[in-house]
Structure formats: C-alpha cells, structure tokens
Amino acid sequence: MLIEVLIFILICLFVIAKFLKRRPRRIRFIGGRGTGKTSLLNYLLSYNYKTVPTLERYTIKYKNCTLEEVPEKDGEFLTKYSIDDPNLEYYFFIKDLEDYEILRKLIDMKKFNLKFVMVKENLESKKEDLICLKGDFNLFKKIL
Q1: Cβ atoms within 10 A of the Cβ of 97, count?
Q2: Range 24-143 has CATH code 3.40.50.300
Q3: Where are the bilayer-spanning segments (predicted)?
C-alpha cells in the first residue's frame, strides 16, 4: 500500500514538472560599439545583414532565452551600460584584454551575473568570466 502511494506521488510530481513551463532566461548584451553584439544576435537569428549602430534597446526570443541588446547611455558606468538588475545574466562585449582588465575592476562581480565576451581576439581564455569566441559564433550557441 505504501509503495503504491509513493509511486502515485512520484508520477504526479513527474506530470506536474513536465507541464510546468520554465521561465525563460533573461540575458542582456552590453558593451561598446563595434564589439560584435548585433552581429552575434543576427547570427543566432540566421540573418545575414550588415550591422549599424544600435540606437534603441530591443529584445528577441531565442530558444528558452530572452536576449536584449542595450545601447550605451550617458551617465555613470553602471547606468551607461544598464547594469541594474542582479536577476539578469549580462554578457559584456569587449574589444581586447586591456578592456577586460579595466572593466573587471569597475564592476562588482559578486553583485551581478556578468561574463565578458571577446568576438575577434584569437586567444584561449583560462578565465571563467571571459568567453573568447575567436570569430566563431557557434561557440556562443553552446553556452545558451
């Protein structure tokens, strides 16, 4: 009798878990101009467009993620890059390792879920908060 009740409870939990919809991950792409944010989004959507500077914030859906590209604003560093919500994942696109060293000192890494992304550099990264795509956007698909 006890085993049957446990099996019934396990089946119910499995059915409930199966039908509950997972909340999509919210990811924000931030960084300076010319760092590859828009190119990566176009690649994920299979668009083959020439990119232009992003002037307004926009959001796209990709798999179970909500991806948001945010342009730079005026103001202090966190305001400039819209780093304001500790519940979001941030991918900060940078041009070189020098930017990485400088920005790492400016951002409270414990407060925000932030990783740095370099698109063009052809180097291996041993740092867990730095993703080097080496021009291959497929590497980012594996992260998502």
Answers
A1: 16
A2: yes
A3: 6-21
